[in-house]
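FIELD: query
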Amino acid sequence: MSIAMPCSQRATAALIVMCACILFLVVSPWSALAQTETVIYSFLNPPDAFNPRCNLVVDTAGNMYGSTFSGGANNLGAVFKVTATGTESVLYSFTGGADGEHPIAGLVRDSKTGNLYGTTVYGGATNNGTVFMVTPSGSEKVLYSFTGGRDGANPYSSVTLSGANIFGTTINGGLYGYGTVFKLTAKGKETVLHDFNSAFPTQDGSYPYAGLVLYKGAFYGTTTLGGVYNLGAVFSITKSGAYSLIYSFQGGTADGQNPYSGVAFDTKGNLYGTTYDGGVDNAGTIFVIAKAGGESVIHHFLRNGADGINPYASMILVKKNLYGTTLQGGSANGGTIFEITPSGVETVLHTFVGGADGFNPYGALVQGAANSFYTSTFQGGKSGLGTVIALVP
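FIELD: result
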């Protein structure tokens, strides 16, 4: 099993610097047309943010927002904004200590207030991470500081807003040390809804790197390890904490293993996702769990120089087809953007080659103006510190 990633560092035996995110989009029927990739912005050295590893969120004016693990005035991470025309500004630079430091996951935007919500892996009162809010003007407020005990530690994923509450996951802490699912009220009261326990006989999953997807009143997510075979799992959990293990990955050449991404649902209730490893080339898979039950792999990524490998971010559903990114693979091993039909026909829409182009997209795609897809890359660009790119018809 290979779960070590390029450009990342282990903070603990289970702590790998990555992110994951989930977004649902409106249809844009241009997949059969020629695609053009454009670099909207190239990140620079501090005090700029740099090396984005997460998704972007877009407002109605076409402005894009994200966070970076490094960069900012103190090189402890930042929240940034990029306009549709490519003007970038750092909204907030983390200082370390109480305000949090090193955000990995993407942001969630409240459409009514414009406030941005996210997590930091470290920092806070005990250096175990935080949940924070940043206003459109750049004022930051810590909503909760994790203690590293029963309440969880080190949130890697973005949060999910539901009413006045915030829901999310931590990869460490909890009753058994394998991570948690938590709920946070508007007043800052945190409740652990589930403690992951990978030990026999529970084997319900461990280390949830991805965030939660709310579908018909329940949350769905993945764990990178754990499950019956300790190769990762798919789970569901209600807002009151009723937990169900949906599927345990088996690995090998027939099944995937080690999912870092979240899941997506189609209009029929079928669940789709990716695994970073496993499959015929041990390069990752795309899987579906049917509404009626049962998992099947619809695509095995191949190490053939053309296909992408090792999908890290979540896919997005665009009407009937799915779109996503691979962290590596393609002709220059810099990752790809792909489209796949529900029957498993995959098309590579763009291959990242480095240089002025981006390289290694950790983040998911998001839809912006003129039916374009946007994402960020960890490396590449004019300074080699990452980009914001658009893929247009």
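FIELD: remark
Confidence is low (pLDDT under 50) at residues 1-33.
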